Amino acid sequence: MSRPPLIVLLTDFGISDPFVGVMKGVIASICPQAGVIDLTHAIGAQDLVEAAFHLDSSLPYFPDGTIFVCVVDPGVGTSRRPVAVEAGRFRFVAPDNGLLTPVFERWPDARCRVLDNDHYHLPSPSSTFHGRDIFSPVAAHLAAGVAFDSLGTFAAPETCSRIERFANRPLEKQEGWVGSVVSIDRFGNVITSFSAAAIAGGQAWCISAGRVSHLPISTTYGDVPVGMPLAYIGSSAMIEIAVRNGNASSELGIDRETPIYLTTHRQA
């Protein structure tokens, strides 16, 4: 008998409370043979942009058939739909609130089902914990071999919610762009909304944000002395800001609301 597909969890639940453990208990009760991996439970509370980014940047590293359970759900208990999506090599179970925007961007031909067949839910689901009562049991049933189309009513992908992930806009009076902070990791490194493609083409670009101005794009932390800031292309192919052996977020005054400026060196 073949092993069930992997189930990957992404939430904003943290690990101080029992929520994640309970979700794993539900999965184990329905499909005990399924392997479960925690992608992250440290998404900022209700932060759909950060959740979508980390989901998208992680997809290439998982095997065919992986089921992603993505629960960042500020609209839990409202009229927002719970959905399952089959796209490319994967399946996804999540609220229809824009979290799956990168999935629809990658796979316009994705298939979608509204999770309205309560046979695959826990009895009497609560209005505040669909991660336990709907999303986890649906994922476990999928892993156990339940047919995707039996989960609920067909939904056209174009009816699913989208979010604007990278709201970069051109500067009005100089050559360059203003973007945003997508995520700040536990080291205080700042992931910006600018991809490596934004600086392709041979021009010399630099980054300004918070208390630092006109950082050239370096290669790695060792390019600057200890305690000095730098900008570089991170492992997710986005421009990041760091302080070598330090915390860029706290030391440079950069948070999720800080604008990020990408300009050419000649404007420094």
Percent of residues in helices comes to 10-25%
Q: In this structure, how is the largest beta sheet organized?
A: 9 strands, mixed
Give the rounded overall mean pLDDT: 95
Q: How many DSSP-defined strands?
A: 16
Find the structural class using helix and strand composition. alpha+beta
What's the CATH architecture name of the largest domain?
A: 3-Layer(aba) Sandwich
Number of domain units: 2
**Rg calculated over all Cα atoms:** 21 Å
Per CATH, the superfamily of the largest domain is S-adenosyl-l-methionine hydroxide adenosyltransferase, N-terminal
Query: Strand order across the biggest sheet?
Result: 8-9-16-12-13-14-15-11-10
Shape: elongated
How much of the sequence is in beta strands?
25-35%
Number of helices: 5
**Strand/helix succession:** EHEHEEEHEHEEEEEEEEEHE
